[in-house]
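User: quick one, sequence for these tokens?
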């Protein structure tokens, strides 16, 4: 296993990684002591759980009272009789709430009916904040009780947080998660304090976990590609990386990351649908929900062979209906029927790996399967069998798979490995394009052309790409787009400048005009910069027809290669480039009440 260097910082601090999963959540942490080698440890003690020092995961579930106050959270929802108490007290259950934060895309829209609604009067951020608050309290209590100087370390304020999220989540989701962190009391709403929260994708965290566990063989270390499949409760996150051959375990992403809503919960959803249809019209129909819950907690993980039937116990010895496969209070499920529940997830992984191999710039021979769903022996065996014929070796860590993401998030902090990422979409700006009568599409739109003060002729509604899909991007690589505004007077120029960055999610090639494929274009964030000082220095220029005008020229610079995008504004004064700060503001309309 790789050895970590001693912490080189000058101040002692504590870092928590909170992995809020769709069905289960976990916390890992490290205490950074100057000059000492850091360790990655899990939080294993949660209020409401009988055993101490046991499982490092808790259900991602909250029960709310009629007043909107949480009555039971996480491990507390596992207590004996909690469901009966919740029913008697008319508590509302919030589960799978993380998925309400998902990006608003065609793929995510297809699972809307499968996701339970949020409690009345609660937004996704509200529920997420309540769960973060619970995790923070559990983590702080654990540190204070487990480490001799834990209380003083917590009181110092030198505490940072890493929040994990699926590959498909973008800046809007990060903005909502940070808002939830403020609401939960992890940080306060200032720029300095917000920097104490950072993000990592579940795919990258899983890579770091595999590296930290010493799973990389010599072929991978020499540059052979490796695909990581993080099979979680809600999503399947797939990434492919290759070593850059350096001595410090530096890796580059070699295919665009993918994320699909085909995690373990959708196997349970398929089982519930089957049970509803099977038991419809029978006296056992009301038991379908209970059976589906038993399937989720026991049958799904125990299932190994389609030739072996499985039994779900739900009643007493007198419960019998042979036509439905019910005898002595047990429902018999044919193994092939259960295999069908798994098939969409297995096929999704197979297709995703094929796509990763097609897009990859290196050969891939190894697949690592991690995440809570990876604990399914049937899923693992099926992937091994099917991928072996394609020359792929499938492995999974000899460790608690549900710890991969929070442990990997900390490992990535201690030893940053991914320095190059691949753009999942094309990014650019909507703008006026220089008119070119030789182009057929331009000639067709000639009636729309506009003449600027400078005499330049443009066509509105165009799209200029800044970063193309499937482009490898390093963390320090800058992408820029040049802009200009013209007005007869300085007052006509916008001092509080906002530039909208547009994303194209369609197939290549990207069209030249937005209305050629309008459904696949969307504004993803705005870059805001104060250009008032620059405008004050502008000199008038001679325009066509003898008048004068003012022209504002500037560049928007964006760093797309980091987990959270960064931006700057640039311009030239006396031939020298100057730079100023720019703020990225994401559209967070995904936040809604159900």
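Assistant:
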């Amino acid at each position: 296993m790789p050895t970590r260097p001693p912490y080189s910082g000058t101040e002692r601090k504590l870092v928590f990684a909170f992995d809020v999963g769709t069905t289960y959540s976990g916390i890992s942490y490290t205490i950074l002591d100057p000059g000492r080698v850091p360790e990655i440890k899990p939080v294993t003690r949660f209020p409401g759980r009988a055993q101490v020092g046991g499982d490092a995961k808790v259900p991602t579930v909250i029960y709310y009272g009629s007043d909107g106050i949480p009555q039971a959270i996480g491990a507390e929802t596992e207590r004996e009789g909690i469901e009966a108490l919740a029913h008697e007290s008319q508590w509302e259950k919030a589960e799978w709430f993380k998925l309400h934060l998902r990006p608003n895309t065609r793929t995510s829209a297809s699972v809307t009916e499968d996701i339970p609604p949020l409690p009345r009067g609660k937004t996704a951020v509200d529920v997420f904040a309540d769960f973060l608050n619970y995790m923070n309290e559990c983590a702080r209590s654990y540190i204070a009780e487990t480490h001799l100087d834990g209380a003083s370390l917590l009181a110092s304020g030198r505490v940072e947080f890493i929040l994990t999220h699926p590959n498909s989540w973008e800046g809007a989701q990060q903005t909502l998660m940070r808002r939830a962190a403020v609401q939960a009391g992890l940080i306060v709403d200032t720029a300095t304090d917000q920097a104490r929260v950072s993000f990592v994708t579940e795919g990258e965290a899983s890579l770091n976990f595999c590296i930290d566990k010493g799973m990389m063989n010599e072929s991978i270390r020499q540059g052979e590609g490796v695909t990581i499949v993080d099979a979680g409760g809600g999503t399947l996150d797939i990434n492919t990386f290759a070593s850059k051959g350096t001595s410090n375990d530096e890796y580059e992403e070699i295919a665009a990351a993918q994320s699909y809503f085909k995690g373990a919960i959708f196997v349970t959803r398929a089982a519930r649908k089957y049970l509803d249809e099977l038991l419809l019209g029978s006296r056992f129909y009301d038991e379908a929900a209970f059976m589906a819950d038993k399937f989720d907690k026991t049958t799904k993980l125990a299932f190994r062979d389609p030739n072996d039937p499985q039994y779900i116990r739900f009643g007493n010895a007198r419960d019998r209906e042979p036509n439905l496969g019910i005898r002595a209070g047990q429902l018999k499920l044919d193994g092939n029927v259960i295999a069908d529940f798994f098939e969409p997830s297995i096929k999704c992984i197979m297709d995703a790996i094929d796509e990763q191999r097609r897009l990859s710039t290196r050969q891939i021979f190894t697949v690592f399967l991690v995440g809570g769903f990876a604990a399914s022996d049937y899923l693992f065996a099926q992937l091994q069998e099917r991928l072996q014929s394609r020359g792929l070796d499938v492995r999974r860590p000899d460790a608690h798979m549900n710890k991969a993401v929070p442990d990997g998030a900390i490992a990535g902090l201690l030893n940053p490995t991914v320095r190059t990422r691949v753009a999942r979409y094309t990014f650019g700006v909507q703008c006026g394009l220089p008119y070119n009568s030789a182009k057929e599409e331009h000639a067709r739109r000639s009636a729309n052309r506009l003449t600027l003060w400078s005499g330049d002729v443009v066509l509105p509604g165009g799209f200029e790409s800044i970063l193309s899909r499937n482009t490898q991007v390093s963390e320090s690589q800058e992408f820029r787009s040049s802009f200009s505004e013209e007005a007869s007077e300085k007052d006509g120029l916008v001092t509080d400048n906002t530039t909208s960055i547009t994303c194209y999610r369609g197939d290549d090639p990207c069209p030249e005009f937005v209305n050629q494929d309008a459904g696949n274009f969307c504004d993803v964030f705005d870059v805001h910069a104060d250009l008032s000082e620059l405008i004050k220095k502008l000199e008038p220029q001679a325009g066509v027809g003898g008048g004068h005008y003012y022209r504002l020229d500037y560049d928007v610079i964006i760093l797309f290669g980091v987990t959270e995008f960064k931006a700057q504004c640039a311009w030239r004064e006396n031939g020298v480039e100057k730079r100023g700060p720019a703020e990225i503001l994401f559209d967070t309309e995904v936040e809604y009440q159900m």
